[in-house]
């Protein structure tokens, strides 16, 4: 280590006297301390007074190769780049003596060597040249007491085996709880947000309404879309009306404000999907890199345990590796669950998960950010009071026009081919429900359900004969499984009892639920023989006479939502309204039944406890809108059924068709006695 040359011609120092090592200083070579002799005396005399520092590039308070007598010997500095020495000495004030630090490192004591201290220590580590100079000084027998405190620390750590590895293990051990939280915390938020998205009935209704608006806007130009991309939701705020200030999003928000105000709170604290905004910050690739860092730390601990041999430190390292391994295992399982749920949520929202590495690089941040931004747009539009008032007034006017048009259409009657609906007042055949659209007299083509037709040779109905029911039918037809026969002799079976269907020979044979209810795709039937649930979860049960005029129950259809809307648009000139959880609609395409555990109350599917409050013993309670205070008797039914003796029985128009002008609960008991028994 070289020292600067002495100042020209200047010798001596304050306080008089001189050291015995002037020749060494003058030559620019740091003297090697010796035991005894002049060098020892010089060091002893220097310790008694004040002094400066000696560094590889500078000697403080040292001129002409002499040290002042009566002052403390100058400190020798090797760590001179930046503020390393100062920062390390500040750390030592917190940690104690260098010996305390060595003990804490050897014992892997994170109570004394906290993560923040270790990071500061790592940031101020001397470089290789500085350590080499320090070690050369110590190897030459240099006095540790003459070193600065920073140098003394690394002089003490000089003989600590695998110092860098131990410091890294200490930092990993102290930071393990923080590292575990950095991985598990985001994953837990992501899983919660994804579960909320798939389980939110309000979000499903909001997206479904947005899809309906988009299809209505593109009607006549594009085919109806079955789904809407998350990235396209922002375009709702860009599609403007003629005034340039009202957007399609304002109309969407207005519709939701009328039908489901809770959908406008999505993403806010305390509402559905409240976890989405906080979970929209991470990608799986970022979380996987943190898991990889955790795995690298575990490998480091295991290598250190193998190098440490046996003893308490080895057992401590093994326990640390086991603890970190458990954290890694939990985080890996949580990551796998989050990836699976993200792919499921994308499919639920109508998108496909992209292949790797695109999926990990973008998701779930892209998906959750799109949803979060859509929520923010709806909140902003809802807060735009002036625009919302204009939109609500426009919607009210449009709705009044549609209702007036629908009423006029009902008065005229809808025609399908050569059949006209109000046949009872047009045909001379009693009990006729479908008649020719012209001619005099009007020919009849179909009888009410309680009647059986007697045909003319041209295919028209000559007369409608009241059917024979139950025991009389079985005697007249000779079929033990018959429920209803025509009024001719011999009698022909026109309906079978529950559990049986009619074959091509008009005989009653065993049949499945779909055959019995005459509803393809039916999974379960009501006691009255009507289908109550479609087998496919994405299908809605629709009575056949909502589509085909005067088809009586139990005929039904299991249709996709898009098909239901198309039929409603064709028949009623407007889309059907189906709240989330709806599985059946009535003849006017209004929801009439919700999925298991829910009742239809206020046009929403809610749990029985908050809905109709009917007990499980109430027959056909899924069609009840409200039960009495005791919960054992229905007092109001949904639109699909009529109330008969506390039970929601089949609506008369469902029995005979919507063309039945004389149908009412009272008339039904006269036309069809079985109606009062809960059909």
UniProtKB/TrEMBL annotation:
<dbReference type="InterPro" id="IPR015425">
    <property type="entry name" value="FH2_Formin"/>
</dbReference>
<comment type="similarity">
    <text>Belongs to the formin-like family.</text>
</comment>
<feature type="compositionally biased region" description="Low complexity">
    <location>
        <begin position="36"/>
        <end position="47"/>
    </location>
</feature>
<dbReference type="InterPro" id="IPR051425">
    <property type="entry name" value="Formin_Homology"/>
</dbReference>
<protein>
    <recommendedName>
        <fullName>Formin-like protein</fullName>
    </recommendedName>
</protein>
<dbReference type="InterPro" id="IPR042201">
    <property type="entry name" value="FH2_Formin_sf"/>
</dbReference>
<feature type="region of interest" description="Disordered">
    <location>
        <begin position="1"/>
        <end position="57"/>
    </location>
</feature>
<feature type="domain" description="FH2">
    <location>
        <begin position="1"/>
        <end position="404"/>
    </location>
</feature>
<dbReference type="Pfam" id="PF02181">
    <property type="entry name" value="FH2"/>
</dbReference>
<feature type="compositionally biased region" description="Low complexity">
    <location>
        <begin position="19"/>
        <end position="28"/>
    </location>
</feature>
């Amino acid at each position: 280590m070289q020292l600067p040359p002495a100042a020209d011609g200047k010798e001596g120092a304050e306080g008089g006297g001189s050291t015995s090592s002037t020749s060494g200083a003058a030559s620019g070579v740091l003297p090697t301390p010796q035991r005894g002799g002049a060098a020892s005396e010089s060091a002893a005399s220097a310790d008694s007074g004040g002094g400066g520092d000696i560094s590889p590039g500078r000697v403080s308070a040292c001129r002409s190769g002499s040290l002042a007598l009566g002052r403390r010997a100058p400190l020798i500095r090797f760590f001179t780049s930046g503020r390393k020495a100062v920062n390390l000495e500040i750390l030592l004030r917190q940690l104690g003596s260098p010996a305390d630090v060595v003990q804490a490192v050897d014992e892997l004591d994170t109570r004394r060597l906290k993560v923040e201290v270790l990071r500061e220590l790592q940031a101020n580590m001397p470089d290789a040249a500085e350590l080499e100079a320090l070690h050369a000084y110590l190897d030459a027998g240099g006095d540790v007491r003459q070193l600065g405190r920073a140098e003394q620390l690394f002089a003490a750590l000089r003989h600590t085996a695998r110092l860098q590895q131990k410091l890294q293990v200490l930092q990993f051990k102290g930071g393990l709880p923080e590292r575990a939280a950095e991985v598990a915390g985001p994953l837990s938020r992501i899983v919660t947000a994804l579960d909320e998205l798939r389980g939110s009935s309000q979000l499903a209704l909001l997206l479904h309404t947005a899809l309906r608006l988009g299809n209505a806007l593109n009607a006549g130009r594009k085919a109806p879309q079955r789904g809407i991309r998350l990235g396209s939701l922002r375009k709702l705020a860009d599609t403007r009306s003629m005034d340039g200030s009202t957007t399609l999003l304002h109309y969407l928000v207005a519709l939701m404000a009328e039908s489901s105000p809770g959908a406008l709170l999505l993403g806010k604290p305390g509402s559905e999907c409240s976890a989405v905004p906080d979970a929209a910050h991470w990608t799986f690739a970022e979380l996987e890199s943190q898991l990889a860092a955790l795995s690298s730390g575990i490998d480091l601990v295991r290598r250190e345990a193998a190098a440490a041999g046996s003893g308490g430190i080895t057992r401590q390292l093994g326990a640390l590796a086991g603890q970190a391994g458990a954290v890694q295992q939990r985080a890996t399982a949580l990551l796998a669950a989050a990836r699976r749920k993200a792919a499921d949520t994308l499919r639920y929202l109508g998108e496909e998960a992209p292949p790797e590495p695109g999926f990990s690089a973008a998701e779930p941040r892209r998906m959750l950010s799109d949803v979060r931004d859509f929520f923010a747009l709806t909140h902003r539009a809802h807060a735009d009071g002036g625009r919302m008032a204009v939109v609500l007034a426009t919607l009210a006017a449009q709705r009044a026009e549609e209702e007036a048009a629908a009423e006029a259409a009902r008065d005229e009657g809808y025609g399908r081919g050569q059949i006209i609906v109000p046949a009872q007042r047009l045909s001379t055949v009693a009990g006729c429900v479908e008649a020719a659209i012209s001619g005099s007299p009007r020919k009849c083509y179909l009888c009410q359900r309680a009647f059986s037709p007697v045909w003319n040779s041209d295919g028209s109905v000559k007369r409608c004969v009241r059917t024979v029911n139950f025991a009389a039918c079985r005697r007249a037809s000779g079929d033990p499984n018959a429920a209803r026969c025509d009024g001719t002799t011999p009698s022909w079976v026109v309906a079978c009892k529950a559990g049986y269907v009619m074959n091509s020979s008009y005989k009653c044979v065993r049949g499945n639920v779909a055959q019995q209810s005459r509803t393809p795709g039916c999974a379960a039937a009501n006691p009255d023989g009507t289908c109550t649930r479609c087998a496919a979860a994405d299908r809605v049960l629709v009575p056949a006479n909502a589509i085909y005029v005067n088809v009586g129950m139990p005929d039904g259809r299991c249709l996709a939502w898009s098909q239901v809307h198309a039929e409603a648009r064709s028949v009623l000139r407007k889309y059907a309204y189906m709240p989330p959880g709806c599985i059946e609609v009535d003849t006017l395409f209004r929801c009439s039944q919700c999925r298991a555990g829910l009742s239809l109350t206020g046009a929403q599917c809610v749990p029985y406890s908050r809905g109709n409050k009917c007990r499980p013993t109430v027959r056909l309670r899924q069609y009840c809108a409200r039960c009495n205070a005791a919960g054992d008797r229905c007092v109001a039914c949904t639109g699909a059924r009529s109330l008969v003796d506390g039970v929601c029985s089949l609506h008369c128009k469902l029995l005979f068709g919507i063309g039945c002008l004389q149908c009412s609960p009272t008339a039904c008991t006269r036309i069809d006695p079985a109606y009062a028994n809960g059909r």
